[in-house]
Amino acid sequence: MLRLAIFDLDGTLKEARDPYVYLHSRLGTLAASDAFFADGFAGKISYAEWLRLDAALWKGTPVATLQALFRENRYLPGAEETVRALKRQGVRLALVSTGIQIHAEMVAQELGFDRVFCNYVYATDGILNGETRVGVPEGGKGAIVDALLAEFGVAPSEALAVGDTRSDADMFRRVGVSVAVCPNHEAARQAASLVLEQPDLTPIVPWLISRGHLANL
After folding, report:
1. Residue 175 and residue 145 in contact, taking contact as beta carbons nearer than 8 Å
2. How many domains does the chain have?
3. N- to C-terminal Cα separation, the chain
4. DSSP readout, 119-139?
5. Which residue from 52, 56, 84, 126 has the fewest beta carbons nearer than 10 Å?
6. Mean confidence (pLDDT) of the chain
7. Is 30 helix (H, G, I), strand (E, B) or coil?
């Protein structure tokens, strides 16, 4: 039976797959971000520098503006229901995202997550000031899963991970049960126990029940 469920956020619980591209698109800074996107994607600049460059383009923007934009980024069908069904059965919940805390903490509060891991952009008097901190580097999710298993005293066989990208495959390999939601990389597809080909989390709970990982609701 499951005791811990670990979720990615972007593209897994919410529709937009890349929160940075989403914000740049909505804030009119997408073209400016092209100047460093290729270097960041290729690893030519550090992840911390990439985050700093992203946040520099948003400096002076009210936090409330980002909150409003993230609220417009809709949950995938079945996302809220799946998380709440797990919570009702006493499963501890963790959110592990390379996105920023403005979004991650909002979702964690709305859905009742126990733990949140994410990156940070800071503000002064409600206005983004360009300062940042990396909490979840690209490729760093596996180590966070290890820490969560130890913190909650949960065996890998008692843990579920849900995600959609190559970085989520590192989570999948550390737990007994894993779900890839419309995976955009073969590594995630190959590492998953269940692959959902549609952006809809509704099948997850019935599948978990059928495999004996949850009690019948």
Report:
1. yes
2. 1
3. 13
4. EEEEEETTEEEEEEE-SS-TT
5. 126
6. 96
7. helix
Please give the distance of CA 28 from its chain centroid, rounded to a whole number.
Answer: 24
Query: What is the per-residue pLDDT across 51-83, written as a single tens digit (0 to 9) for each?
Result: 999 999 999 999 999 999 999 999 999 999 999
- Determine, yes or no, domain membership for 125: no
Domain CATH for 140: 3.40.50.1000
C-alpha to C-alpha distance for 109 and 25, rounded to whole angstroms: 25
CB 74 within 8 A of CB 15: yes
Angle between helices 30-41 and 19-27 (to 10 degrees): 160
Give the domain extent around 102.
4-13+78-120+136-210
pTM confidence score: 0.96
Enumerate residues 6+ apart whose C-beta is below 8 A from 28: none
| Residue 184: Cβ within 10 Å count | 15
The Cα–Cα gap between 34 and 128 comes to 21
Residue 46 DSSP SS3:
coil
Does some domain include residue 51?
no
Structure tokens at 171: 């989570």
Share of the chain above pLDDT 90, in %: 95
Calculate the alpha carbon distances from 114 to 72, 93, 161, 203, 212 in Å: 24, 5, 15, 23, 24
* 178: in domain: yes
Whether 44 is covered by a domain: the verdict is no
